[in-house]
Design goal:
This protein is of the alpha/beta class and about 450 residues long. The chain is built from 14 helices and 21 strands. A 6-stranded parallel sheet has the order 2-1-3-4-5-6, sandwiched between helices. A hairpin with a 2-residue loop joins strand 11 and strand 12. Bound molecules: 5'-deoxyadenosine and iron/sulfur cluster. The site of 5'-deoxyadenosine has 12 residues, from strand 15. Iron/sulfur cluster (SF4) binds next to helix 6.
């Protein structure tokens, strides 16, 4: 009999992408094979996100579609994994009884056992216990071939920002031992990955008996074959000088930091439990720019947090403008039942939130273009990603600052870092010309 086939659909953040790779690795080991065609699958897992209501709505709708598939194929096994499984276990069991398996983010190790239990009797299989210890240390993720490998270095979050569901869905913060992480990096390099992105809900609060985050970062930087290293997402509170020093000293650590701001006004930051003031945030931005010249900074912004006045919203615009972010992920506040902010009584009207979102998007478009234009005339190292979608004669690559660069193909190939003279900036992209090393030498002399 051929192996049963599985299909995993992933929603939400990079941590979920990593977790889906872990689950795939485990399924491969216990006799299942991956299919890229959902219609052929015997098992379908949705790895879900609960960060905003919209993310949950998407999965609810997807499940309704899959219900039809299951009606045509009653043997099909349907599983919900991840943050929504953790968060909405009872609601899912009641409203979608056709979902067979519900597993929270700390229960994946039990997948082989759960699948065989389910195959034996037809009862729902549910495990949403959170663990203080689970770090999936001995499991290796099954990765697609590519340029960048995501590697999880810690799980969970203890920060409890008042808007955020993550501490409830992913549990307490745990750091993986350094050795396991370094082995996983070496394995990824031996498989052909050249860029490593270290992942954690609070990546820079990583801490083990062997050292803190900056020690780990330095060790990763010395592994032969690691051409670029990124990390996401750090918390401003844990950005220390040791870390900035390691970034400045190691050429393969990208001069790029994703530094979530969330809001500009001190009263809102306090209500969000972000643990820094506007001034402290701005000082940090300045410090980053001093330590790491020409660094790029991106951010996360939430508009319409409960009680946010017009003047307080304008503080967010002000901080965005002063920080001159290279890019930003911008969101309307979404109330998450169970979080502290959901209990506040002064929620902002949808229309106001929408209007504020539009304003931050418009401002960020301007800032991104302004920041990208500062590169025109410079020769930047660009990591070749893949062929441009627009033309088979062009490459799409990325700068250290994570900006997409389009340039004509000459003799380079994907995964190579090549010098590109930046000639234009449009939208969110840069356009340039490959500099042949001879020309570069000439320029330097
Ligand atoms: N509403 C809107 N945005 C949120 N985020 C987290 N929780 C919420 C919420 N309830 C955003 C934050 C965070 C990013 C991952 O998602 O900006 O940094
Ligand atoms: Fe959520 Fe705040 Fe933790 Fe980030 S730091 S995962 S926003 S609680």
């Amino acid at each position: 009999m051929p192996d049963p086939l599985y299909f995993i659909e992933t929603y939400g953040c990079q941590m979920n992408v990593y977790d889906s790779e872990l689950v795939a690795g485990m399924l491969n080991k216990c006799g299942y094979s991956k299919t890229d065609d959902i219609h052929n699958a015997d098992v379908i897992f949705l790895n879900t996100c609960a960060i905003r209501e919209k993310a949950e709505d998407t999965v609810h709708n997807r499940l309704k579609n899959l219900h039809y598939m299951k009606k045509n194929n009653p043997q099909l096994l349907l599983g919900v994994l991840g943050c929504m499984a953790q968060n909405l276990k009872n609601e899912l069991l009641e409203s979608k009884p056709y979902v067979d398996v519900i597993l929270g983010p700390d229960a994946y190790r039990r997948i082989p056992e759960i699948l065989s239990d389910r195959n034996r009797d037809q009862k729902h299989q549910v495990d949403t216990k959170l663990s203080k210890f689970e770090i999936y240390e001995d499991l290796f993720p099954s990765r697609h071939e590519g340029v960048n490998a995501w590697i999880s270095i810690s799980r969970g979050c203890d920060k409890f920002c008042t808007f955020c569901i993550v501490p409830f869905t992913r549990g307490r913060e745990r750091s993986r031992p350094m050795d396991g992480i370094l082995n996983e990096v070496k394995e990824a390099v031996s498989m052909g990955f050249v860029e490593i992105t270290l992942l954690g809900q609070n990546v820079n609060s990583y801490r083990t008996s062997e050292g803190k985050f900056h020690t780990l970062l330095e060790k990763v930087a010395t592994i032969p074959g690691v051409k670029r290293i990124r990390y996401t997402s750090p918390h401003p509170q844990d950005m220390d000088e040791d870390l900035l020093q390691v970034m400045a000293e190691n050429e393969n650590v990208c001069n790029y930091i994703h530094l979530p701001l969330q809001a500009g006004a001190d009263r809102i930051l306090k209500r969000m439990n972000r643990t820094y003031t506007q001034m402290e945030y701005l000082e940090l931005v300045e410090k980053i720019r001093n330590f790491i010249p020409d660094s790029s900074i991106s951010t996360d912004i939430i508009v319409g947090f409960p009680g946010e006045t017009q003047d307080e919203f304008i503080e967010t615009l002000k901080v965005m403008e002063i920080s001159a972010f290279d890019s930003a992920y911008m969101f309307k506040y979404s109330s998450r039942p169970g979080t502290k902010a959901a209990e506040y009584t002064d929620h902002i009207e949808e229309e106001v939130k929408q209007n504020r979102l539009q304003q931050v998007i418009t401002l960020q478009k301007k800032l991104t273009l302004q920041q990208n234009k500062r590169h025109i005339g410079k020769t930047l190292p660009v990591l070749v990603d893949k062929e441009s979608k627009k033309s088979p004669l062009k490459w799409a690559g990325r700068t250290e600052g994570n900006v997409g660069v389009i340039f004509d193909k000459t003799n380079e190939h994907p995964k190579e870092i090549v010098p590109v003279l930046i000639q234009d900036a449009q939208g969110v992209s840069l356009f340039g010309k490959r500099v042949i090393e001879k020309e570069l030498l000439h320029e330097i002399n």
